Amino acid sequence: MDVIKVSHDQWQEIFQLSMYAFQYDLSDKELEEKRHNLKEHQILGIYENNQLAAKLHIRPFQVYQRSEPIKMGGIASVSTYPEYRRRGYVKQLLLASLEEMRKNGQLLSMLHPFSISFYRKFGYEIFSENIRVQMKQADLIPINSDKIGGKIIRLRKEQFHEALHDIYDAFAQSHSGMLVRSKEWWQKSVLKNVAAAIYFGEKGEPLGYLLYDVKERRMEVKEFIILQHEARTELWRFVCQHDSMIDTLTMNINKDEPLLYTLKNPQVKTELTPYFMTRIVDVEAYLLQYPFQIQSDDSLQLHIEDPYAPWNEGVYEISRQSIKKVRNVSEQQREKCLTLTINALTALLLGYQTAQQLSDIGEILGPIEQVLELAGIVPKQSTYFPDFF
Q: Domain extents for the chain?
């Protein structure tokens, strides 16, 4: 069966498959809203007996890489009716989507996996984790008893404030792989069913926020984004002030957030779970925009293996003068290169794993001297991805 581009006019078929596969129902109002949003999606599908048997959506996003936005294709709503499963349809759709994203200039692709091992076969690799912290009422003790001179503004559910965007954007530009959020994305996705509290410093500068919900004596903090420690202190104090209203607190935080270290009792339940996956779609174009930190005049050759995106396979030479794909490489030349799968290259350049870590587990093959040289030109980065699509 051939993969085709599904017209948005087939929206009823599209949503019927999604609702069946993911076991949910949509009201007429929700259907109309999703139909309106569908115009941004590129939908690939496979038909059998004149019925949409399998599909996936490519959603256009941008993510930050060392403060610069790059185009990313988000894979979503991968679904197949049960009678058409195990026929290789999802594989066909994924391979076709890589070709489409390359044509679109989308250098990265991201998805939320139903199975990490399944998507790893196609070059996707984990790049972010969710840290979920659970606390009891007794754990709600302020970090500092002295009140700082700034102020907190509390917003109603789904209310947007430009300061949210300013804080998020400053934070995202110092991390790798975070979405470039538009105001529309904030309103349609991020702020759906949550309230916000924003901390402003003494001079009125926005320094941190949290997104949260309180109901049935439970508080859940969905995002905790901090630019300066005083915001951490005061927003945590804001959480603690809910002690008479809640019995339990659940927080989602990024792996570099030092809140737990600062608590009076950091011995709380913490769960770390792999979250989103990503892969480089076009290695040559991605390397050309990548912020390598090259100091010496030496060059480094990387042999990349990517069987599901054959345009990526080959040897790439990285030097201060240029970054290029080397044509007509002999077997002898290839043996002198560092060898990486597309998975390992993605994990390395996004900052999820270091060159030494990947070398230790056999994901980078080659002389340790070259591994250390590679480590020296890849900037230290931290990954985080609080969104969902």
A: 3-111, 131-273, 283-377
